[in-house]
Design brief:
15 strands, 265 residues, single chain, alpha+beta, 5 helices, globular, 5-stranded mixed sheet
Length: 265
């Protein structure tokens, strides 16, 4: 087990790891779906996420959808927030995440440690012997809807553009297969296990999974999938040309020791 120091905000800030401007506001009560976007040079926009979701993104690789969080006050998985922050125009996604860690320490007084455990996982593999991908996987064109993409930064799980869960599916632009596996691990999919990429593919893709997600109320267990529609496993196989195979693996768990509702902006 590794123990992280409680709060090191002053040391972090001294090395330039703080946003120039940052706001944290409660998300609208009727908000659905979640979004993490890099909306401009050095700018990050996070919509409708609880503290546990923010911790996942800040301390995990990529969008960290499959990072398990334990402990903490009940509100940490129920109260949803919108976060907008501006750093330096030259900040990479990893540098923005470092600044988000500083923000969580400052505004939420976050303290935690990490542990490792053995878990059941799914390996993401080709569904066909000829390794042909499905109709909802396209080669990425190198842009984010015509605008410049973020630079590669050594984190293969981080989308070069975006990853978005919605009630109609999962849309990923400029994402690696490692990142797609991470997104499929997220709670909205209902898969319930970490998904690990075993395709061996190294490119970036646009992937659009059409699936009727039923978002649970904040703090509740994931809602059941639409009984009239295909399972998430069938949708992944038919649309992506990939399948999920059961396996064993190890996972890191973040244990929240304490946190407070965010201070005023």
């Amino acid at each position: 087990m590794r123990i992280f120091p409680c709060l090191s905000l002053l040391a972090i800030s001294a090395f330039g790891q703080s946003f120039d401007v940052a706001t944290i506001k409660p998300a609208p009560a009727d908000a659905v779906g979640q979004r993490i976007g890099l909306t401009g040079p050095g700018r990050i926009n996070i919509q409708n996420m609880a503290l546990v979701d923010l911790v996942k993104f800040a301390y995990g690789e990529g969008l960290a959808s499959n990072l398990e969080i334990r402990g903490g006050p009940p509100w940490a998985s129920k109260d949803r927030y919108n976060v907008e922050a501006q750093g330096d125009a030259t900040d990479t996604p990893n540098q923005l995440k470092a600044k988000l860690r500083s923000l969580l320490a400052e505004r939420f007084s976050l303290k935690f440690h990490t542990e490792q455990k053995d878990v059941d996982i799914y390996n993401l593999v080709f569904a066909r012997a000829d390794k042909k991908l499905g109709p909802k996987v396209k080669d990425w064109d190198g842009t984010c809807g015509g605008r410049a993409a973020s630079a590669e930064n050594g984190d293969p799980k981080m989308p070069r553009c975006s990853g978005l869960y919605s009630q109609t599916g999962l849309k990923m632009i400029g994402i690696s297969m490692i990142g797609a596996a991470d997104m499929l691990s997220g709670p909205p999919t209902g898969i319930g296990r970490q998904v690990v990429d075993k395709t061996g593919l190294t490119g970036y893709y646009d992937m659009d999974l059409e699936f009727k997600f039923s978002f649970a109320p904040p703090g509740a267990a994931p809602a059941a999938a639409d009984p009239e529609g295909p399972s998430i496993f069938t949708a992944v196989q038919e649309q992506f040309g990939l399948k999920l195979e059961s396996a064993k693996g190890k996972a890191e768990v973040i244990v929240v020791e304490s946190a407070e509702r965010p201070s005023e902006n």
